[in-house]
Amino acid sequence: MSLKVYNTLSRKKEEFIPVIDKKVRMYVCGPTVYNYISIGNARPVIVFNMVRNYLEHTGYNVEFVQNITDIEDKIINKANEEGVDFNDITSKYIQAFLEDLENLEIGRFSAMPKATEMIKDIIEIIQRIIDNGHGYVAGGDVYFDVLKFNNYGKLSGQKKEEMMAQESGQFSKKNNIDFTLWKSAKPGEPSWDSPWGQGRPGWHIECSAMSMKYLDFKLDIHGGGIDLVFPHHENEIAQSEAAFPDKGDFVKYWMHNGMIEVKDEKMSKSKGLKSDWILKNLLKKHSPDVIKIYMLSTHYRSPLEFSAEKLEEARKALEKISNFLRNAEFLSSIENLKPVSSGINELTDIKSDFEPDSPSVKIYEYVKYFKEEFKNAMDDDFNSAKATGILFDFIGNVNSIIQSPEFKITETVARSLKISSGIVLSHLKIFGINLDKSRQSLKAGNDKRISLDDAEILELIEQRLYARKQRDFKKADRIRDRLKSFGVILEDRKEGTIWKREE
Ligand SMILES: [Zn+2]
């Protein structure tokens, strides 16, 4: 099966064929920096990071640009409220956003342009729109003449006539559905020189200018939250296609993530954020991997419920994966194995040990099935929710082999377990989850039961083994109980003592 992507423009899933073979040019709208970003703003960040990772995993070379809106009414309002320069607001929240990205372990962008650095390019594209007869100047502002653009409404399905009938408070423009490309500056507002006087860009125009500059015309993927379809993305189409009328569609595939919902409320920065919706605060309590698995366990287009329970479910899910990896690696390190990297080629080793019902052959079948089904799920419009389910089925199947009474470790079984843990790790990387690196410091958030790290647990297990060798069983039991009070469960096996965290 080849990759299919749901295109908001056609309202159906389409086969994914980029404009240029093997290359994907992707643009996602970033935040307006007048506040800390919320868990809602983090969704497109995590979703489109997964999209990029999966495209790279399947062999595409991806260029990924995300903008930062650092001039906008909300920023100016906030600066006025606080009595500071708008730059003080934007530099503070840009810094906070970059720190959030770092804490989320997401940071590979081909470019991350800011609107205020693009003024020259923005003026050029506005001039093109005016020259092509799609823009006009009125009262020092420049407007886009919506009635002159035939395809207006093609993305959102809005009808011009219905929009025309709505009331509008703006009188200088020709029609109430016309939108601003350039705003004249009021005294004291930040402004730049332009052919139309001192002013600043409207919100929508920066994305047309930036995508054109950094990725060229006809993007493969343009992404953002579903709340941006209208008017922002509808206006981006109008601007870009009016500026470059001979180049066809501005974007091939429009992708939109669903909103995050807190019971019946919509999460919105402009209505005021509760402190536990702020990503920065959430990252103090939860590892970035917990937040990623929470988000990606739901399909990106579906609404996502936000609650402490949902995050706790995600933590347990991650713990299950972590326990599996630790035990698979422990058991596979018992035999004196040559180092094995993960990958399909290694599977032939297991095939050669052909006994139809042997554990290694069973694990081989599970690995093969997992890889195929994970790919099928992701090829179906990046269905990470389904792919996550397939991952847990795989872990459950291999666990049931490890836990069966007749299980015995042999070199081929050890090798197959090593491959299993490698395959889980490499597929988690598509979700941006790097358990390989973070497992040692996997924190269980604010959950007090678990405050021992892996090294401390191993130390206590060693002390318990020593106590048992000395036949000091009381001490050994005390250590076991102590570990249990931290949610760490020991299992004494003939191969040694393995442990897991309560899930
Ligand atoms: Zn945008």
Topology:
Layout: E1 4-7, E2 12-15, E3 23-28, H1 39-57, E4 61-66, H2 73-82, H3 86-104, H4 119-131, E5 135-138, E6 141-144, H5 160-164, E7 179-184, E8 199-201, H6 205-215, E9 219-225, H7 229-243, E10 251-257, E11 260-262, E12 265-266, H8 279-285, H9 288-296, E13 304-305, H10 308-332, H11 347-352, H12 359-379, H13 384-402, H14 411-428, H15 435-438, H16 454-469, H17 473-485, E14 488-493, E15 496-501
Parallel strand pairs: 3-4, 3-9, 9-10, 11-13
Antiparallel strand pairs: 1-2, 5-6, 6-7, 7-8, 11-12, 14-15
Helix pairs in contact: 2-3, 4-6, 4-7, 6-7, 9-10, 10-14, 12-13, 12-14, 16-17
The site of zinc ion (ZN) has 4 residues, from helix 7.
Summarize the structure.
With 503 residues, the protein is an alpha/beta fold.
Number of strands: 15
Number of helices: 17
Name the CATH superfamily assignment of the largest domain. Answer: HUPs
Based on helices, strands and strand pairing, what is the structural class?
alpha/beta
CATH architecture of the largest domain: 3-Layer(aba) Sandwich
Q: What is the alpha-carbon Rg in Å?
A: 27 Å
- From the N-terminal CA to the C-terminal CA, the straight-line distance is 35 Å
CATH class of the largest domain: Alpha Beta
Measured as a percent range, the helix fraction is 40-55%
Number of domains as seen in the coordinates: 3
Question: Largest sheet, order of strands side by side?
Answer: 4-3-9-10
Q: Give the overall pLDDT as a whole number.
A: 89
Listed once per kind, the bound small molecules are: zinc ion
> What characteristic shape results from the CA principal axes?
elongated
Largest sheet: 4 strands, parallel
- Strand proportion, as a percent range, falls in 5-15%
- As for the CATH topology of the largest domain, it is Rossmann fold
Low-confidence stretches: 340-345, 440-450
